[in-house]
Amino acid sequence: MKNKNIGTILLCILTAVVLYGPWPFALRLSDPGIIRPGLALAFGIALTAGLIFSIVRLLRGRTPTVPFGDNKALDNLRRAFTAQENRQIIGSIAKKALSQLSSFSQKSASLNQSLTTRFGDSSITYSRFADTLNQAPDAIFNSLDLLLERMKAFDEKEYMSLSLRISSGDYKKDPIPAKVQEDRLLLLSDHLHDMERILESNEKLLLMMDQCNLELSSMKDSESEKENQRILEEIRQLAESTKYYSQHI
Q1: How far is it between the farthest Cα atoms of the chain?
Q2: Are residues 18 and 130 in the same domain?
Q3: Is residue 43 domain-shared with residue 100, that is, in the same domain?
Q4: Domain co-membership, 73 together with 19
């Protein structure tokens, strides 16, 4: 896209030189008659508009598609979750996280394809959607990164030992106060519950992407702007709530 914008800018400049230079056309607004001044004005407006549009897009840069696939950080995250799969308590959480990574990658590609098909990848509407949708990778990646750190910190052996001793009542015979052990188990249980809530939050984001994709494919042209705005706002709010939730648990 960057090269395309540069090419358009150069084409506009070259066309202007050909049309307004001393050779071969030498169009001027001051030329006698109507045709040549009219052509000079019309071409001038068109070239100026094209030049401004291309420069703005070049400076802004096209919003990249959702960066899931061969992303190095994502591959590292996959390997880290894979290493956690065999853990007795949180292995199932690791499997769900891996499933979400795979699902998100597929949904992102599908959604980007729907956007390109419907709006074209150079339209302003595409850019608006892409800007918003690119909040989703950040939200889910950050939440899964946080999940991984919590998984690494979770003491599975202590959790299983405390659960067994407290359920049997044996912990009351320990020199460690019963209340301390109960509070410790409660802390570990809350820790485990928080990890599950991160996955639940991500599932909502994945569901919203499915809904957005479906609505894009069935959107009527007569209500496109209204629907565009509604879908954009829904995704924005969900991505923001996912990031906020991940940072405050």
Answers
A1: 108
A2: no
A3: no
A4: no
* Three-state secondary-structure class, residue 162: helix
Which pair of tokens denotes residue 114? 């729907």
* CA–CA gap between residue 216 and residue 224 (Å, rounded): 9
Are 91 and 210 in the same domain?
yes
pLDDT (tens digit per residue) in 110-120: 877 877 777 77
The token duo for 134 is 């690119």
What is d(CA 224, CA 222) in angstroms, rounded to the nearest whole number?
6
| Structural domains counted in the chain | 2
Instruction: Tell me how far apart the alpha carbons of residues 118 and 134 are, in angstroms, rounded to a whole number.
Output: 18
CA atoms of 13 and 19, how far apart (whole Å): 10
Q: Which tens digit of pLDDT belongs to each residue from 175-229?
A: 889 999 999 999 999 999 999 999 998 888 888 788 777 877 776 655 556 666 7
Domain, as residue range, for 147: 65-247
User: Do you find a cis peptide bond into 137, omega within 30 degrees of 0?
Assistant: no
Please name the residue that has the structure tokens 């030049």. Answer: 51
Q: Are 19 and 25 in contact (CB under 8 A)?
A: yes
